[in-house]
Amino acid sequence: MKRNIAVILSIVSIFMCVLASCVIRSRSTGNAEVKPGEFTVTYYQGEQVLGQEYVTEGNCPVNVPQGISWRNESGAVVNPAAIPVTGHTAYFARGTAALRAGHNQYLTIQGDMFLPDAHVTRSEAVQMINALLDPAQTIDVPAEAVFTDVPAGSPCYDSVQRLYALQVIFGYGDGTFRPDEEITRGELLTTLCRLTGVSEIAAMSFPDVEQDYWALGSIAAAVTEGWAKGQGDGQFYPDYPATRAETVALISRVCGRTPNNSAIDLACGESPYTDVPRSHWAYYYIIDAAYRNEILSYVMGELGDLQPGVVFIGDQMGHVNPQTMTLDAYQKGFHTVQDGLPTDGLYYAPEDGFFFQRFQPGLRELDGSMFYVERADGPFATDYDLGYLHFGSNGRYTSGDTELDGYVNAIMNPIIQGDTANLLSEAKLREAYNIIVFGGYRYGSHFNSGWARGSTRWTVTAAKSMFQEKRGTCYYFAGAFLHLARRLGFQAYPICGGVGTRNNLHAWVMIDDEYGNEYIYDTELDWAYRNHYYTGVSYGIMDMFKQLRGHANVLYIFPGDTYIVPPNDEEELLPTIIWPAEPGGQAFIEIDGELMPMDTVWTEQYDEAGTLTGYLVSATYEGNTYTNTVLLDAPPAETLPPEETLPPEASPIPPDYSQPPVNTDQPPVNTDQPPVNTDEPAPTEPVATEEPVATEEPAPTEPPAPTEPPAPTEPPFEPEEPSGGGETETGNADVSTDEVTE
Predict the structure, then answer these.
(1) Which residue of 52, 129, 623, 677 sits 20 to 30 Å from the alpha carbon of 235, by its own alpha carbon?
(2) What pLDDT does residue 651 have?
(3) Residue 619: its pLDDT value, please?
(4) Residues 425, 416: Cα–Cα separation, whole Å
(5) In a domain, 28, yes or no
(6) How many CB atoms lie within 10 A of CB 346?
(7) Which of 363, 398, 433 finishes a domain?
């Protein structure tokens, strides 16, 4: 009897197992037969089965429901279409766990315009969405760039990598993301549906959205959720570019952010944006997105929500005092702040109130002076050297001489006009150059007629004297232009070397570009050529602005260069000798095309007053002795610039430049100044543009046909320096400056 009962129980147990297996198989396969070597892939939205397909082992699914992000059975965010099937698999539509909780600022607006009707790019959209993700959530971001047109370093690179890892964006079939293209209303809604895990639905009542339209389900879901609605004419316009106002309002609704209209009215008073009046339909959404909630809470008197530390509002920042739990108040002007802002130091309050101006790194023009910001939202640099530029204890750029700063600011401030965009402008650099060449300055002998080769400490003394007397040698021309160029933020530096085949002592200014190319700026020779100052010189050369080293209009010899002194040998009997430029250097003699080294002996030469005038250089090779005379101007004592002092309340007024001074030291020269070359277009001031809003766009799932990207532009390169004497590619002969005495 017991044995029979056991047999019956065994049969029942087997039957129940088979039945359970059938039930499970029924859920997994939809009551369909699975062929050998195939597995089922099922897609769930909660308990609802959204879809199912049969995939041969080793292949990837091909019928993944679109518009949704997916998690695997372990909870990790995955892309089912990229995972080979090795067994029966289930995927689950992702919810909203990736979104940041609470109210945070996700727009940064510079200036007083929002441009609500401007179209949004994919780059802007993805950056805005990325700002809403929970920073505490772990996202397995790909190590390499996902899209070929979004390399590391691109403004939207981090946002694209994160949203791709969450399977919110997929890009185009050609491997591109097309960050600069405008995102459409349909594409934006599809991206947000994927982000939130909202399921697509089929109900739709817009006449311009066909039933087979690729984004039909996402648009219907967004309308059902209350995120979007059609236009007044009953159309939806899914292929129209999304505007900035529409994007901000849509993101706020998706995230459940309801603007506090009363708090915004109290905090803003009048609209902070000239193109978004209070009557604009998206006004409160825009202000809510761009302003920190802490500020609104403060205005409303809800101090319990105000946290101590730094707070941001638009393009300004303030500090909440931890003792009083209120915003610190400041008067308009510069303030040194301790223990509170991102970095202690010097900040600028644009008006009386609670906030300082926020700046991105770089040079800034304020209050008639140039400042430097080392890091975003940081203070102005003080007692700081940025290459050749020095910023004093008050944060202002200074030459180290208060009087010289006054002359430079009086000349340059009307050109700069307080606009940071005018700094580092080549058009403005040309204006500064023309001031020295055409501004009434002229060549004239001076007590300090020359400094030693390689010296650089003459620039302050020479520049100040040039601005005072409006005449001087090449040192004074170069010094004056150098300090005007530095006031524009250029890394200008002086050179005291030689010019022409006789290596006459000469000074000029150098500025290197971002690629390392070295450019010569020679205001003195430019003035001399234009005024036909030198006799026996070809005057076909005019413009000496921005000459590439090695390809200049005349031969420039830098300190330390070796150069060839042409022998005074009409029958060409003497060999070619290459003499060193500095005392003690080694000479070379050319024998059968090869350079053979020769030791040199330098004998000092003095005048009757005991002043060193130069050297007699001798060298011997195989019993033959050769000599060369190197003449030097006796240099004055090196003068260090005075220690920096704070600028005066008002900049010194430079001399009256309306009347040229009488120059009795030089023979009469042609004073008919030729007009400025009108073949060259007049420099135009760059238009200051609003910094782009960090608001980027997601990529669509149904992209248009791919287009070829433009070919990259190669940076300029430094051409090879010509060999031999100073002939240029344009055929200009090497201009001898034997007659130039400075």
Answers:
(1) 129
(2) 34
(3) 83
(4) 10
(5) yes
(6) 19
(7) 398
pLDDT at 635 > cutoff 60: no
Longest dimension (CA), the chain: 144
Model's pTM, two decimal places? Answer: 0.44
Cα–Cα distance, 261 to 299 (Å, whole number): 12
| SS3 (DSSP) at 478 | helix
3-state helix, strand, coil in the chain (%, to 5): 25, 20, 55
Residue 575 burial (C-beta neighbours within 10 Å; 0-12, 13-18, 19+): middle
8 Å CB contact between 489 and 506: no
Q: What is the pLDDT of residue 395?
A: 94
Domain that holds residue 57: 2-93
Average pLDDT over residues 453-465: 91
Helix 523-530 / helix 426-438 crossing angle, nearest 10 deg: 50
Rounded Cα gap, residues 640 and 660, in angstroms: 30
Per the model's pLDDT, the better-predicted residue between 599 and 697 turns out to be 599
Joined tokens for residue 361: 């790194």
Residue 367 in any domain: the answer is yes
Domain membership of residue 42 (yes or no) is yes
- 260 CB contacts (<8 Å, ≥6 apart)? 288, 296, 300
Structure tokens at 98: 């990736």
Q: Is residue 34 in some structural domain?
A: yes
pLDDT of residue 202: 66
**CATH number for 325:** 2.10.270
Question: What does the pLDDT average to over 392-401?
Answer: 94
Q: Whole-angstrom Cα distance, residue 91 to residue 262? A: 45
Single out the residue of 603, 568, 572 nearest to residue 590, CA to CA: 572
What are the contacts of 33-36 at 24+ separation with CB within 8 A? none
Q: Do 287 and 105 form a contact (C-beta atoms < 8 A)?
A: no
Helix axes 402-416, 426-438, angle to 10 degrees: 120
More confident residue, 388 or 314: 388
**CA 473, CA 740: separation in Å to the nearest integer?**
10
Q: What six digits make up the tokens of 622?
A: 């195989």
Mapping DSSP onto H, E and C, the string for 710-730 reads: CCCCCCCCCCCCCCCCCCCCC
Rounded to 5°, angle at Cα 391 from 684 and 355: 80
* CA dist., res. 244 & res. 249, Å (int): 9
Report the candidate in 429, 436, 484 with the shortest Cα–Cα distance to residue 459.
484
- Return the H-helix or E-strand segment holding 74: none
Q: Which of 309-323, 327-341, 645-659, 662-676 is predicted with the least confidence, judged by mean pLDDT?
A: 645-659
Task: Scan for tokens 């750029």, then name that residue.
Answer: 397
DSSP lists the bridge partners of residue 27 as: none
Return the pLDDT at 484: 97
Q: Which residue has the tokens 């409160």?
A: 284
CB atoms within 10 A of CB 280: 16
Helix (H) or strand (E) holding 150: none
Domain count across the chain: 2
Cα–Cα distance for residue pair 398/562, rounded to 1 Å? 36
- Helices 283-290 & 261-268 angle (0-180, nearest 10): 70
Integer Cα distance of 264 and 287 in angstroms: 7
> Which of 331, 365, 398 is the last residue in one of the domains?
398
What pairs with residue 380 in β-bridges?
Answer: 346, 373
Q: Cα separation of 486 and 388, whole Å?
A: 8
Neighbours of 214 (CB within 10 A): 17
